[in-house]
Amino acid sequence: MGVIRKTLNWYARLSPSRGKTSPPYEHVVQIGDPRLRKTSEPVPIDKIKTSEVQKVIKTLEYVVNKYGSVGMSAPQIGINMRIFVMKLTAQQVSSFPAEIVKMRGISVVPLTTFVNPTLKVVDYIKVVHPEGCESVRSFSAEVARYKKVQITGYDQNGEPLQRTYSDWAARIAQHEMDHLDGKLYTDIMDRKTMCCVCWEEVNLSKGKVAIPFAPE
Q1: What is the reported pTM?
Q2: Which of 33, 75, 120, 140 is deepest in the core (most CB within 10 A)?
């Protein structure tokens, strides 16, 4: 492990953008970062409109768009606050085959910010589908999630907010809620289904594949 870490650090020093940065980051932290395993702290309601909290929210919005993701939690950008954003654009929906859209119940979700969210299960039926995470880059596994949930909290302006989500949107919400409690999908996945999403490319390129941890 020592040799591997020394090699990785040597490569990291070659990065033109190398240097100390402070959260909220404009990149997504990876599994192993202790902040992903901490239970995040609630945000005082009267602090939601402060520059500190608003910066976290704006950075989450920036990063979720930068990565083309469907959800992002504050711990993933290095901040242990109970905040997450989620979205699913028409363009993202159209990127899935029609049969997958129908089977998984994938639909458009407007960009939504939740501060201090709580989750209530509405439909206890669990559905199993492949799931990935920007903090477990280039891997996926099958995960069972509740079919329908209700999220209650506050929006970016400190106003009460409640949304009920079904199917794929419910999966996104549950995934992000887990992050706020220091959990990852790897904790509840079907371990035998975990795979590298680019395993075929690894073989085709004879192992010469670079996995970026941020979009170019």
Answers
A1: 0.91
A2: 75
